User: What shape does this take?
Amino acid sequence: MPDKRNALVNTTLLGLLILATIISLATGTVQVSLLDTLRALAGNADPMTDFVINELRLSRVIAGLLSGAALAMAGCLMQTLARNRLATPGIIGIDNAATAFAVASVVGVGLSLAPSAMALAGAAAATAIAFGLAGANGTRGYRFIVAGIGIGAIAGAVTQVMLSRVAIDAANAAYPWTVGSLNARSGQSVLVLGMGLTAGYLVLMSLSRALNTLQFTDAVAIALGTRLKATRIIGLGLAVMLTGLAVSVCGPVGLIALLAPELARALYRPGKVPLTAAALTGASFMLIADLLGRTLFAPLEIPVGIITAIVGSPYLLWILLKPSPRSLT
Amino acid sequence: MLNALSPTSVVASRAFFPPLLAAGFLLLLVVLASLLYGAGPVSARDAMAALMANGTEEAWFVVTELRLPRTIIALVTGLALGLAGALLQSMTRNPLAEPGLLGVSAGSGFAVALAILLGATTATLTTLVAQLGALAGCALVIAATRVQGLGNDPVRLVLAGATLTGLLLALTSMLMLMDQRAADEIRFWITGSVAGKPLSILWATLPSITLALVLIAIAARPLAAMALGEKAAVGLGHHPGRIRFLITFTVALLVGSATALAGPLIFVGLVVPFIARAFSGPDIRKTLWLCVPVGPAVVLGADVVSRLIAAPAEMPLGVITALIGAPVLLAIVRAGRMPSL
Assistant: This one.
């Protein structure tokens, strides 16, 4: 019975996620009781409740679920591949680059591709630069991360350049992306994200054994029969895809990709890459952060990116300031 | 202070004056460009004529009332940020210790946003608040370098600073969401830009910048001694604790003033000392002297670019400095060996 603990963890997390989903659906300007929410989901509620739940809130909650899960999985994958706990897409600038490209497509600079495709291109470009510039120390240690901060800064500046060059309407339409919010989603991007997430998850499950061996040194992984190069390329490609598609829905909500895998790893049995648990945790985090943003100062809405930054940054600082961080350098 | 350079550095000083003169000349060129070129309809030729005192009234107005104050503010900002970066880097022995990257500027900006939300109105008060915020940020950074392991890991310190900056920016945006009226004013203070700032802010910051320059003149020699190690500095009759306090205070004055003038400009404090050190070598006193022309030239040059790149619109100055600065950060981090300070 090797995976009893992990299965228990996954089940618990799934339960929490379902709870978070239902609470998210029920809470808002119009408060719906949990029972009525379930009834509306089952399709037998009064028209008013049905409209609020299924028309207004469901699409937002689904977007949050999918993007949170995708970001967390990408983060977990990237941490494993770079063997660096801090190497999540948000921290090394991939989110920002994807945002810059998505904004480019919205404000109509350059090719008028769909935001999803452009965000993918941005994520891929930033990843290539980050790993290409990894330099003498490779992807371990802090230098890789700080180089990523540089990339993120450039991408952020480019976003600003584009926003300042276009008409104010186009700039306002693109603004939510630059802070991270579930308001800007388009139905099409969510659909593409859903398909990408499903496909990515299936591929990753088939790769899970190879990914587990990546936690050892290269020599050990090869001895265990892992095809290192292929695993790395596929893994990195999937991380890029998940990040890009998620950013095209919710913007750079980067810290979820750090926080969710951290929690999942703490709960999981050591030695396994907690992809499923990370995805479930990430989805819950996204929903809870969005719920907080919607309700804390209602009717004012705080973008979800600001909530995750305020909650997540102190944790990241704590990791950095602790005298001896584990599993780094 | 140049005369105070020790005799042993005479040989090295031969290679020191040409870059200083070249930087000074470059600065003059940039000032001229700043007066001549703008996003508006006044052409360089008109502006030149106005400078020669035989131009149109419109050109005269644009040059003296719009471009001149802006130029002066950019110059002072560049001076303050360049010196602050050089001081902080020398004291922490960390080539990446930049006030913007470490969260000092963001702390200053957040303090300003908070003060405006609570009803602060005058430029003097806002400047003071910006300086207090910078002081708190500096104190945090210094405390962080004392945390075991962080002080001798330059890159990790920067990462912590970037995280702190992200947190402060998020909090600032939240404050701005709270109050629409205050948000417009906060945006005026915290957008990295020198456009349209009244000279009254300059008058409000001038005393603290003067004080900072005096403190630098006092602290430069002990700081150079501290580069040899704290024990050597003690042996030479200096008090490291006092010097550290003095420098922290000076950096806070400079960064607070710069933030009040131009908003949180990230990367300037990294780029300017980086360029200066390339010519001056490790001696902090020479580096500081070189920062005097280089800092203003970099900020003003970036401002000129920001006017022209999106004309007739303008681009925030902070965007240009980020585009210049981030590659420098990449270059420093990527180098196999950190430049030692």
Q: What stands out?
A: Residues 241 and 247 of chain B are 10 Å apart (CA to CA). Chain B is about 75% helix and 0% strand. Residues 15-87+98-334 of chain B form a domain with the ABC transporter involved in vitamin B12 uptake, BtuC fold (CATH 1.10.3470.10). The mean pLDDT of chain B is 82.
